[in-house]
Every structure is written in C-alpha cells, then in structure tokens.
Amino acid sequence: MILCQIHAFFSLLILTVLASWGLLGAAPAQETLKLKQIEQMIAGFEKEANVPTVSVAELKVWLRGAGQLPVLVDVRPENERKIATLPQAISLQEFTTNPARYVGRKVVSFCTIGYRSALQTAQFRELGFDAWNLRGSLLLWVHSGAEVVDASGQATRRVHVYGKKWDLLPDGYEAIYPRGIFDSLRH
After folding, report:
1. pLDDT in tens, 134-158
2. What 8-state DSSP symbol labels residue 135?
3. Over the stretch 83-116, which tens digit does the pLDDT of each residue have?
4. What is the domain partition of the chain in residue ranges?
5. How far apart are alpha carbons 92 and 60 in whole angstroms?
C-alpha cells in the first residue's frame, strides 16, 4: 500500500513539474489538476478505510499474469455499471450469488473512485477473501488509458461518475450522472 502511495506521489510530481515547465501543454495541465483532485479525494477516505489497495499499474500486471486471474467486482448499482465497467468485471450481485466460486482468488473491488469499493473490500476480507480495493477505481483506470466497456461489452468513452463532484474524467470522456433536483445532494 505504501509503494502505491509513493508511486502515485511521484507520478503526480513528475506530471506537475513537466506541466509547470510547459512541456505538456494546456490540456495535460488540466489533466494534472484532475489527478490532484482525485488524489485529494482518495486521501480523504483511504486511511479510514484501512484495506489493502492495488494500483491500476499493479492490477494490469496481475491481469497479464499466469495462473488464476483476479476476479474484478464492480460494486456499483446496475444503472452505473451498464454505462461503463472494467472488461471481464462481474457485479456484486453475481459475486454474492456464489461466493465459493471465488475462494482462493484475489478479489479486486472497484467503483467510481474507491470509497464504496473500500467498504465492500472490508466486508470481503471479514469473510476470508484475499480482497483488494482498486485505488482510484474507474477514475484512475481511465486516466491510465485503460479501456472500459458498456453493458454489451463494447469499448466506451462514457462513464457514470456518481455525481458532478466526481466528474474528473480525462479529456475525451463523457461523464454521466444524475442531473436535477437531487444532484445537489451528491456534492
């Protein structure tokens, strides 16, 4: 977990320095600002969650590895999952229907930014699973350039981000979230 935090810190530091020198141009400077906001939001809940995390980079290595691949569990409700999820992810409902099927495998929970999945990761660990929370979840996944898919399995650039506060997607992505009278409750 400490290595993940050190990696994230130095990645942001390098991007910040390059942007301040004007080597990344205007758009990457905006991306750096979004990444800083994501990191601040994560810092607000990560310590209290007290669950092991896996970085996007580490998860990509796990997914390319030999042997048992981790099971990816999208803990968000269906209305969010159908817009975009990680390739090969299953729903929490699918997991809980037959949890014995996943005994002995790493279980990686994710959501929009990692808060809801951190809570679920703690529950999985209490049940004895080797559970991990995907640090930064979908937001850092798409910032890494990794693909997300819609309900039909097709690549998409639309992501349900829970609410306006979480609209921190990279350029080229469309944020989907409820708009209207109840939107102000999500800030």
Report:
1. 999 999 999 999 999 999 999 999 9
2. T
3. 999 999 999 999 999 999 999 999 999 999 999 9
4. 50-186
5. 21
Three-class DSSP labels, 1-47: CHHHHHHHHHHHHHHHHHHHCCCCCHHHHHHHHHHHHHHHHHHHHHH
Do residues 53 and 132 lie in contact, with contact meaning Cβ atoms separated by under 8 Å? yes
| Average pLDDT score, the chain | 87
Q: What are the tokens at 59?
A: 């998860």
Q: For residue 92, what is the enclosing H or E element? A: helix 92-97
CATH class of 50-186: alpha beta
Contact 82, 151 (CB under 8 A): yes
- How big is the CA angle at 21 (ends 39 and 3), to the nearest 5 degrees? 35
What global pTM score does this model have?
A: 0.82
Q: Which two tokens stand for residue 93?
A: 């409902």
What are the distances in angstroms from CA 168 to CA 9, 23, 157, 183?
18, 22, 13, 16
Q: How far is CA 161 from the centre of its chain?
A: 10
DSSP 3-state percent helix, strand, coil across the chain (nearest 5): 50, 15, 35
> Residue 127 CA to chain centroid, in angstroms?
22
